[in-house]
Amino acid sequence: MDVTVKILRYNPEVSEDASWESYQVSAEPTDRVLDALHKVKWDLDGSLTFRRSCAHGVCGSDAMRINGKNRLACKTLIKDVNPSQPISVEPIKGLPVLKDLVVDMEPFFDAYRSVMPFLVTSGNEPTRERLQSQTDRERFDDTTKCILCAACTTSCPVYWTDGQYFGPQAIVGAHRFIFDSRDEGTDQRLEILNDKEGVWRCRTTFNCTEACPRGIEVTKAIQEVKRALIFRR
Amino acid sequence: MSLTSIPKPRSTYKAGRSNNFEMNSWLFMRGSGLLLVVLVIGHLFVNLWQGDGIQQIDFAFVAGKWASPFWQIWDLAMLWLAMLHGMNGLRTIINDYASRGGTKFTLKTLLYFATFVTVVLGTLVIFTFDPCIDPASTLEVCTNR
Ligand code: HEM
Ligand code: SF4
Ligand code: FES
Prior knowledge:
The complex is a heterodimer of chains A (233) and B (145). Chain A is α+β, with helices and mostly antiparallel strands and 233 residues long. Helices cover 29% and strands 14% of the residues of chain A. Chain A contains eight helices and seven strands; from the N terminus they run ββαβββββααααααα. Chain A has helices spanning 33-44, 106-113, 134-139, 157-161, 168-178, 186-193, 207-211, 218-230; strands at residues 2-9, 19-26, 63-66, 69-72, 87-90, 97-99, 102-103. In chain A, strands 2-1-5-3-4 form a five-stranded mixed sheet, with helices on one face. A two-stranded antiparallel sheet of chain A has the order 6-7. In chain A, a hairpin with a 2-residue loop joins strand 3 and strand 4 (69-72). Chain A is elongated. With 145 residues, chain B is mainly α. Chain B has one domain: Fumarate reductase/succinate dehydrogenase, transmembrane subunit (3 helical TM bundles of succinate and fumarate reductases). Helix content of chain B is 68%, strand content 0%. Chain B is built from five helices and no strands. The longest helix of chain B is centred in the N-terminal third of the chain and has 29 residues, at 21-49. Chain B is elongated. The N and C termini of chain B lie far apart (70 Å). The chains are: A alpha+beta (233), B mainly alpha (145). The interface between A and B is medium-sized, with 28 and 24 residues. Bound molecules: protoporphyrin IX containing FE, iron/sulfur cluster and FE2/S2 (inorganic) cluster. Iron/sulfur cluster (SF4) is lined by residues 146-152, 168-169, 172, 211-212, 214, 216, 218 of chain A.
């Protein structure tokens, strides 16, 4: 079948303004939007720029706004985005666009780094691995699935209006360790998220949960961190 | 005790003064919201539904209600909670949408000023209300004095 892909193009070396370009490609209903983008780049216009690496929903590099919703191009089938109409593809919102569909992810990674997304422990290293019961492991299983694609953070209206907010992903990243029984950095992380740019800016919009290509219950994770802050000590 | 201190990772995040202000204001929004549901529905029921409904509201009706400390406290609670809740809600919205520090400061100053004036005037009215302010009043409380 023939589909039209409408892409928001931006090249600061040519023009300060972004503009929509439409491309006709032939695709199977079971192809992914990423395949359509490849066809555009390889056969029609080599200047189209976008990130992708694994092409299988693992690396998190190709989050984009497809028909107005944040998704991974490599996990979105053409048949699921109403191909009888032009399919719109834009960069994710709220991060500076560098070119076409490529955004500057640094502010996003900065927020992630500031919640200390690594195991914090004290005392002597154990000789073998740090053991944990299955129940303890289950407690934070959902938030271990994050692939740092930024679909959630760039779907959040609070983040759109004020990028100072840590954003849902940073809270997911913190949740992963806050509820890990082996970790000892909980107090520090909670203190960071108690900041005025932290969890209290969340307005429970659920955009993040809807956007997450890994199906992580992002809003729930944020609420759990709020609860941990309220009931700590 | 087990609180480890390791250097902060490289980041643009700067810790502000550490306090629970945002948490308390988040809790306040929920608490005051719950109380407001009861207060506002009760208020609407008594004023607009019971008796003659909206036709009954006049000076005498208000005078009658405020003769009782119960309704004074009810209205006072409604005034304070709604004003502080609304103020805090708008503070949140200003934080969201005003990006320049100066704009933020100006809007918040106006907001706090307006809230202060309204709360003070409202409180004053509830407690200094005089049903007999009109010397020609025919209200029972005034004619029986
Ligand atoms: C009737 C009972 C009410 C309930 C249950 C209620 C509940 C809430 C809650 C829970 C929030 C926080 C939302 C969030 O953080 O995501 C909120 C926000 C807000 N409320 Fe109320 N509220 C009530 C009445 C009022 C009244 C009477 C006013 C105006 C005076 C008001 C003005 C606001 C404003 C301006 C916000 C901020 C909106 C935002 O965060 O986008 N509310 N309300
Ligand atoms: S929580 Fe989900 S949407 Fe957000 S960055 Fe991780 S994988 Fe992407
Ligand atoms: S290309 Fe790796 S997640 Fe889509």
